[in-house]
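Key result, reporting period 2: structure in, sequence out.
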């Protein structure tokens, strides 16, 4: 199984650790994220799916970005998914992404300025 990256949002703390797709008893919901582009850059979009501990889908969200890179789409999926969680008041979220580069950007706090603006705005709410 290929490695996935686990972004755990727990009590306003963002941590990123390399992990394999598995259940996590500390988390109430799992957020699967993905982004893609046709060409790089090209027409891009992102999507997220929230599942509870039983695997039941409890929320979805998708969006288009116009012309963007696949990396931008991956990062946007993570931010928009977390924004949805914040809006809904959901805590203890496990985020699974197949983009090691996006996960590392959050881990090292090296997030593209457009994504950072969205991230900071929603964390302040």
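The corresponding designed sequence is given below.
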């Amino acid at each position: 199984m290929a490695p996935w990256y686990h972004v755990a949002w727990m009590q306003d703390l963002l941590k990123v650790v390399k992990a394999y797709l598995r259940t996590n008893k500390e988390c109430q919901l799992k957020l699967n994220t993905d982004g893609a582009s046709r060409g790089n850059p090209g027409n891009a979009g992102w999507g997220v799916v929230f599942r509870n501990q039983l695997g039941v889908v409890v929320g979805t969200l998708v969006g288009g970005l116009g012309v963007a890179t696949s990396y931008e789409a991956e990062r946007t999926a993570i931010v928009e998914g977390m924004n949805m969680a914040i809006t809904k008041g959901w805590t203890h979220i496990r985020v699974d992404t197949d983009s090691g580069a996006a996960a590392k950007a959050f881990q090292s706090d090296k997030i593209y300025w457009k994504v950072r603006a969205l991230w900071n705005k929603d964390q302040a709410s």
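The first strand starts at residue 4 and ends at 10. Strands lie at 4-10, 13-19, 29-39, 42-52, 57-68, 93-97. This case is discussed further under Risks and Mitigation.
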